[in-house]
Write a structure and sequence with these properties.
197 residues, 2 domains, two-stranded antiparallel ribbon, rod-shaped
């Protein structure tokens, strides 16, 4: 059910008031789900490491400790990001905090350097449905591979033609230049073959 509620956003709330306003707009209690108690199915705004963006989503709340939270769209769950330790932030996270209070730790939105999540950057999910590998990566890679194959094939073709032409011209020259017939004595009717090569 969480994936059905997921929407990419350009930024996440910066304080409790903004969080509560966005949570009210999202209205997670309207969604019928069976994964948790209705009161635990809550609004979240979190980095999504799969889509490399920020997402608003309704999901079961977790208690995080020492690490920033993230939404894993492949597992459809809120989880700790063990690559994002928040204990040394300017506003360090507590030993245990509810995932619905991540707005208190704004650096968590910007520190996911392994996925280049930045505050203020987002993608519209409706334009990017799929397995998590965007067309922005697959299409240029395919074009690069195609052009490389084309370039290598062209180079091989030109080299082959060049070698064939050199061989043909040498072979033709050899046929015409191997022997020559000359008359040594003008008064004599005898011709002699001389090898020039």
């Amino acid at each position: 059910m969480s994936l059905d509620t997921m929407k990419t956003v350009k930024n996440c709330p910066k304080n409790e008031q903004e969080w509560n306003q966005r949570a009210e707009l999202k209205n997670c209690s309207q969604f019928h789900q069976s994964c948790t108690d209705k009161s635990n199915f809550r609004y979240h705004c979190l980095p999504n490491t799969v889509l490399q963006t920020l997402v608003e989503v309704c999901a079961p709340m977790i208690h995080a400790s020492e690490y920033c939270c993230e939404f894993n769209s492949q597992g459809a769950l809120v989880q700790r990001n063990y690559k994002a330790d928040c204990r040394n932030h300017s506003q360090p996270c507590t030993n245990s905090y509810p995932s619905t209070e991540i707005f208190r730790y704004q650096e968590c939105y910007a520190m996911n350097s392994q996925v280049a999540v930045k505050v203020g950057v987002g993608v519209d999910k409706s334009k990017n449905k799929g397995s998590g590998i965007g067309f922005g990566f697959v299409i240029p890679l395919g074009i690069l591979i195609f052009c490389s194959i084309l370039l290598i094939s062209g180079w091989i073709y030109i080299r082959k033609r060049s070698n064939d032409n050199q061989h043909d011209s040498r072979h033709n020259t050899d046929e015409h230049m191997d022997e020559t017939t000359i008359k040594l004595n003008p008064e004599d009717d005898k011709f002699y073959k001389i090898n020039l090569w």
